[in-house]
Amino acid sequence: MTERGGQASEYAIVGRVRKAHGVRGELVVEPYTSAPEVMFASGALVVAGTVDGDVASGAPRLSVRRSSPFKGGLIVAFAEITDRNAAELWRDRYLLVPADQLTPPADDEVYQHQLIGMRVERVDGRVLGTVAALYELPQGLMLEVGEGRASVLVPYRTEVVRRVDTDERVIVIDPPDGLLE
Known about the structure:
With 181 residues, the protein is mainly beta. It has 2 domains: 3-101, Elongation Factor Tu (Ef-tu), domain 3 (Beta Barrel); 117-173, PRC-barrel domain (SH3 type barrels). 7% of the residues lie in helices and 45% in strands. It has helices at 36-39, 84-88, 112-115; strands at residues 3-4, 7-8, 11-21, 26-31, 45-49, 61-70, 73-78, 94-98, 119-122, 127-137, 140-145, 152-155, 161-165, 170-173. β6 (61-70) and β7 form a beta hairpin. The longest helix has 5 residues, at 84-88. The chain starts with a strand and ends in an 8-residue tail after the last strand. Residues 1-8 have low confidence and may be disordered.
């Protein structure tokens, strides 16, 4: 869940639509959950939202008809999307569920959307900036820290990230030499 003005968001991201698949409205979904077989099971409901975990008023709700594994992700058919043209409109959209449907993260875990806006600092206390965006790359999750030309990509890996404090909204990193140049 994400904090907005001291109030927790009611939704959490469970996946991102990558692209349309086929002509019957199926979507290739990248799961952002450790339980994709539950979140995308037949009959499950998801809602469209943002990377911050926010849902707009009147956001469409989708009912999963079926899902199957596909190249490290899923192919998902939703009852409300019946052709490729409709499916194309969902490219790069985030899929959310009510946070109370999820098992709370363990002490050493965090929802990805919680990382957006967190302050990033080195182990010596020097502040690098805030997380502006997340990128799922083949080598793993990358954090864009800063803005525009002044931004850097930081791998979200145990070798680099030393601590994430969701209460203080800070990520402490110990980057190897040369990573931030």
